[in-house]
């Protein structure tokens, strides 16, 4: 099979040869298709040769000629198929692929689908692959089929008939089979086409300056992510601990001092402590600082439990008149009066704990209780109030929520206390990573981090997510300052214009495309990248020479333009004095972040953000 781009290259060669009786040079192909290098042109030629469309005539200039046409077929790509949870069967022919007849056999009608998800990885079918399906309504036991269940939900699975039922079996040991009395078979997989090609067509791979390596071993799908203190509080876009640990183990050693320059709730810092690295964490969101400190300070679980039990006792005895209602704007909009009273009692009882570390640790469960008992939709990272009937019926059991979280957190702390390396330390700095935060030059052995995805308005609003908790737990002198956090984070303030000196062609290209549609959005993107560039400079300053800096980043969509943040970082960093050694792509199975996002202010208009991320591995020169 050949892709659309390869077909175009082949057509160009045919027309060229028809006119001149000799083939175009690689350089002419490069120029015609505006490829980054001759090697990319060579790549297309070799793909066409491998697929049997061109002859191999080695070591000669213009060394290609078209072969007598093999019998080929155009196969429509009818949409996407879930190799995971079934998705609605959509059949919208958008494009076609060309395949030689030999590859799929002479019989039958065929169509193709793009695979989403990784439930068939043990069958060699990966997310982003294209599968060619032979249309048929029956299948044999064990064949990989397109199955439609539950009224038009389609999925790709192995089919088995057992005890009068159908078993749809994923080829991934971490996933469970689906059983149904009825299954409609829409065809059987006859060929799998690896994703690398489609990436190339989207301008994402070999004809680029950098190469992304797809490595599913970084997905950690189905693995436990809430061990130790990792699960004590929700935070947007948290690191999967396994990713943090693997980076730390690969790029640092025991006794090293590492830094997470956007530490958020402190996942990388927890992992550092567990495997004997000293760690600095920096963040500009006060709630993140509070959480990171609580997560990384070991507390004797017996002492903690004793204080917790005493607290439960005390809180019952606090009278309504003894409490102090917090005073911040719109408190009555976000909390019912009854809830405010209960929260205030609980807070008073926690504040009476003398040991500050224990007080703060229990305050984390309180912070979660604030979120869950507020009038907000808890499934959202932005502050959205529940409405109508739901709001009227909303009657949260404040103490019940607190107990559930506190007890789970104490169990997590018991594990952390047991496993944390006693002689390593963690220092957490409230600061802006684009500035000097007092960490000495050339002092850090490794930096591991995941920056925000873009400005808070259109991606994750860390400040907004944190606001109500931050206002209740007094992380600000004036709780009303909590609403200003997002403006100070990367990309928080749009630039005045689009003039800049950042040296990244990828950024320039993205900005141009976005600005054509919406200049304001382009300014947001520029502001984010200007800030990020300053953070890269600071990271370069604190890192020891020859040491590694790993960034886990997402390539977001803005106005349907995919911004290659991983490549932009690589370009900017190389100007500053790093070398980009690797870019690894992983799926995001468990990261808490919006997969769909509002691209505009239009209610209900959704735009896919990301389900993959890149790990950019830089090394200081
Ligand atoms: C993707 S999150 C990090 C999540 C973290 N890895 C975790 O596991 O919780 C990005 C963080 O960057 C922080 N941030 C944004 N701009 C910043 C800046 N200029 N300086 C420091 N931190 C910043 C945000 O507050 C947010 O906590």
Coarse structural class: alpha+beta
* Biggest sheet overview: 10 strands, mixed
End-to-end Cα distance, whole Å, is: 42 Å
Using only C-alpha atoms, the radius of gyration works out to 28 Å
Describe the structure.
The chain is an alpha+beta fold. Helices cover 35% and strands 21% of the residues. The chain has 18 helices and 24 strands. The strands form 5 sheets. Strands 3, 4, 5, 6, 7, 8, 9, 10, 11 and 12 form a 10-stranded mixed beta sheet that branches. It has an 8-stranded mixed beta sheet with strand order 13-21-24-18-17-14-15-16, with helices on both faces. A hairpin with a 2-residue loop joins strand 19 (557-558) and strand 20 (561-562). The longest helix is centred in the C-terminal third of the chain and has 24 residues, at 519-542. The chain is globular, with a radius of gyration of 28 Å. The site of S-adenosylmethionine has 23 residues, from strand 15.
